Amino acid sequence: MTAPLIDPFQRPISYLRVSVTDRCDFRCVYCMSENMTFLPKKELLTLEELDRMCSTFVDLGVQKLRITGGEPLVRRDIMTFFRAMTRHLESGALKELTLTTNGSQLERFADDLFAAGVRRVNISLDTLDEQKFADITRWGRLPQVLRGIDAAQKAGLRVKINTVALKDFNEDELITLAEWCHSRDMDLTWIEVMPMGDIGNEDRLGQYWKLSELRQTLGQHYTLTDLPENSGGPARYVRLEETGQKIGFITPLTHNFCESCNRVRLTCTGELFMCLGQEDNADLRSALRNHPGSNAALEDAIRAAIRLKPKGHDFDYSRQSVDGRVSRHMSHTGG
Ligand code: SAM
Ligand code: SF4
Description:
Helices cover 31% and strands 18% of the residues. The protein is α/β, with parallel strands linked by helices. Helix 6 links the parallel strand 5 and strand 6. Residues 316-323 have low confidence and may be disordered. Residues 24, 30-31, 68-69, 71, 100-102, 124, 162, 164, 191, 193-194, 196, 330-331, 335 line the site of S-adenosylmethionine. S-adenosylmethionine binds at residues 24, 30-31, 68-69, 71, 100-102, 124, 162, 164, 191, 193-194, 196, 330-331, 335. [4Fe-4S] cluster 1 binds at residues 24, 28, 31.
């Protein structure tokens, strides 16, 4: 049996997030600038390479794959890749195949995703107001995403909504969004905005809405019960006693969740980031491309990378300047 991936801090690595493209059909203001430059296509891992890469991680004990981007569903023929991963679900090696999407293409792909074995999907949506949606995503249109959500639920996919908490933007929708998610039987997770990438003129500190504040306001409307942590991830959950629904908070900046981190991230160009908040990465693409006939070099490169997984990240807004800033975009590393 192959030894599982364990990092220097004794954390087993069982979760891989894979960015399959840096491209997107939206231009969310906190994620990209409007005239974002994308990578030349030849830099990207091909679908076959993505398959080999993910399958090697599964061989090494990864049990959960989350496909992300950019917008994963705008990558040409991406369903071929999802269908290829089905074999790992069928063998039992992979416990979950899932994705994070902006929802724009779900009307087209929800049934195919379900057929490939996907059962849950995270859909990003920051507002229920059409004009605000167009403003924040620049190129996105709310009705299209709502149709995508309908299609996902109709196909049998469990939906979780991810909402970036933005001061003076969606503070006033805290309760509306909770009620809307409840009415549709969807979980909701709020995410603090992170200092990733050069996004033009946006002011990170101006955008930053602390989730502790958000939680406090939510507590004025509902009785909150903290739920025990079990995801190994950065989310903390509360239950709203009045409705029974679950609300998550991802607080990379105010809560240090690194001690239970079980994940690594593969970019669309084959770099492995051991931590979202650090620049350190390993080039797995060379190990893959230089050894087309065998995965031994790739396995060695993965193990060597995991040995370098840092203890934690250094994002810090507490000194009222954006410290620990990371120059690459979220769409490159995959959110
Ligand atoms: N395009 C897909 C989507 O929007 O869901 C997947 C990729 S996107 C980079 C993944 C998640 O990262 C989204 O929920 C998005 O809102 C979030 N995100 C992007 N930039 C962020 C930032 N600077 N801080 C916090 N979250 C961010
Ligand atoms: Fe695209 Fe997702 Fe970034 Fe928005 S957050 S620009 S949808 S990658």
